[in-house]
């Protein structure tokens, strides 16, 4: 945690950047850890998600120190860990140890395509385990096919989530993904067990507490057609409710003002780039009931978690200029209307 002390009464401006990344994976055409620059793009794992945003924050702190400018409130950079993990333990630790204040104005410098995110979908990860009965594939009728049961559960859950009436003007409709599916012991054996992991993303007015009972109901209905089968549904990682910042918060007004001054244009709120993702700012908002947590940064989530991940130098330059104007004029209410 690094702080540039301010001299006024404005609340703290807190910039968040996580240092962890997802695994490198395969399929790269550029070295994954070299940070090579090709066609004004920096390539590498984490370049977009989110070393670009971290670089913006560090550059801001260095420039503020060299300039001698004293903003009207403290400017704080928090480098977190575990953002890519199920529990987002870094953000939770900040709140648990009272390192985030109730009136903090927060920006996660995550990739948003230089748009402003003021809302994030709720997220619940689930593990489902189906227990059937092993049998010789030639005598399959003597077994209970756990893979078939799990496939039915997946299909019915996907159909149910798509039918839900909930829709948000910014976030859109709920989403469902089966990210992992494991079953079987051999090709010629009826699989005795199956395990799958699910990603369920919701929008208001649906509550995060409704997800597990909804999934349990579907799974229980499916196994009625398979006497002797069992199913278990468990939550995986921290529950993440949907969150939204206030249009009237200081941080939202100030980002809009700085973006307008730097670019001559109005900032786009959301678009298709990134409201689906859950960030450290989202977790902080959920734990503190804050209406002042936003996301704005260089790069696009279209590149995040991919082979040949990159962030453009143009995005880094634009976001750096906006954040500089934001910080050096922080707390100036005449600019935030």
Structure commentary:
The model has no long low-confidence stretch (mean pLDDT 94). 29% of the residues lie in helices and 23% in strands. It is built from seven helices and 16 strands. It folds into two domains: 2-120 and 242-328, 3-Layer(aba) Sandwich (Aminopeptidase), CATH 3.40.630.10; 122-240, Alpha-Beta Plaits. The strands form five sheets. The protein has a five-stranded mixed β-sheet, sandwiched between helices. A four-stranded antiparallel β-sheet has the order 10-12-8-13. The protein has a three-stranded antiparallel β-sheet with strand order 3-4-16. With 337 residues, the chain is an alpha+beta fold. 41% of the residues are buried. The two termini are 30 Å apart. The chain is elongated and about 80 Å long. Helix 2 (89-96) runs parallel beside helix 6 and helix 5 crosses helix 7 (313-328). Belongs to the peptidase M20A family. InterPro entries: Bact_exopeptidase_dim_dom, Peptidase_M20, Peptidase_M20_dimer, Peptidase_M20A. Keywords: Hydrolase, Metal-binding, Zinc. Residues 118-222 form the Peptidase M20 dimerisation domain.
